[in-house]
Structure formats: C-alpha cells, structure tokens
Amino acid sequence: MLNQNTYIVSNWKMNGTNALMHDMVKTFIEKTVTKKVTPESAHTNVSWIFCPPASLLTETKRHYPTINLGGQDCHPKRAGAFTGDISALLLKESGVYYVIIGHSERRQHHNESNAIIAEKACMAIECGLIPIICIGESEENYIKGQTLAVLNDQLTESLSGIRQHITQAPFIVAYEPIWAIGTGKTATLTDIEKVHSFLRKQLPDTPLLYGGSVTASNAGDILPIPHVNGVLVGDASLKVDEFKAILEAAGAY
Question: What does the longest C-alpha to C-alpha distance in the chain come to?
Fold first, then answer.
C-alpha cells in the first residue's frame, strides 16, 4: 500500500547556522511526524525530513532525538580515502534516516551520472537509509518536449541497482526540473500532474515529491495535485514564516 504521509523535505544546501537550526526545529517539530516512517506504513501525517549541512546533523540529533534527519549526499563507497566526502554509514551513525541523492546541483556541478547515483542509492540502502532520488530535465529538454523521455532514462538508470539487487527496499523519488531549481520558475500545475502521473505508472507504491522553487505561495496548489506526495523545499525552508505556510498547506497546522 502506498504511504499516505505527506513528505516535506527541507534541503538547506550549504546554508544555515546552529542558531537557525534550533529556531526552526523548536518551531516545527511538534507539528510534524517525529518517528521514522517507511513507504510500507499507511498514515495520513505530515512527515518533515530535515536535511541541514552535515556539520549540523549531530547537534540536531543530540538536542532533538526524534526528528527525521536527512543527509544531502553520500559517497558510493562505504568507507575509504575520499577526503571531504561523507559515507552513508557515517550519516547513519549521526542519526540520519534519509539521504538526498542525485540532486540537480550534484549532477550539474559534480558531473554525477545516473550510474553513480545508482551506486549511491544502493549503498544508502545497504547502510539502512532511505534514499530520496532526484530526477529532472534541463530547460532545453523541456522546450523540446523531451521531459518524459529524459525522466524515463534517469529513472531507469538511477534505480537499476535497487531493482536488480534490493527489490524490497523503500525509497522516495523527487521530480525537480533543473530549470526551476533556485530560479524562481516553477513548472505549471499541468506539467507537474503529467510528470507525476507518468511516474506513478512506473512506481505505484513509491512516494513522489515535487521540487523546484517551492514557496509559500505555490505549495497550496502543488500539494493537492494527484500523485504528489510532498515537496522538496530549498530556499523557503530557511525562512520560518514561509516554511510555516508550506506546512500549513500540507495540513500540519
């Protein structure tokens, strides 16, 4: 059965401070699910997944042990001589439940391929994490009408390891059009519904999120779209008032 939780994922990227973390978590933790959830459960709650920079993970978990924490990336290897990287195992030991994998900024700025993302997803699952696997087309793809073809390739290749080796493992998929990330542009509601209907046919039991300049002003329109099980929020998740409005749109208040 498809999980009926609404997932609100805060991706702070390379932003945020210890003080802001405390302000945000104290404000919102009581309004959202604070237990680990999996796609096999069937609740109708708002599950807030908080993904701050790695430097804030341990501090957040120490003060708020029930929070659903997420990492922003992990290495495809369990351990090794990879200076500056973080492994899924280290994330797990920091109290993390989820990890974002294949975000468009990682694909663009770090040249991450679908094959690398597939390896990361498998390693995350092997270490006990739930990967949030991101897919999305470029503006050129969108203009040329290639969105579904591009997403199909990304989905097939990014999930290849999970489907072949870890068929029962839970995961989440987030559709985030590259041209809408941090630009203020948002896909039309018709576009979002078309994409999520396409994804649902391939992933009948997987939570599907939308990400791409989600704000307080558009979350209320995006969340009711069929097959949208939540949103991946960037800049707006750093602003208390704006993030509260997003949670209100999700039904947390």
Answer: 49
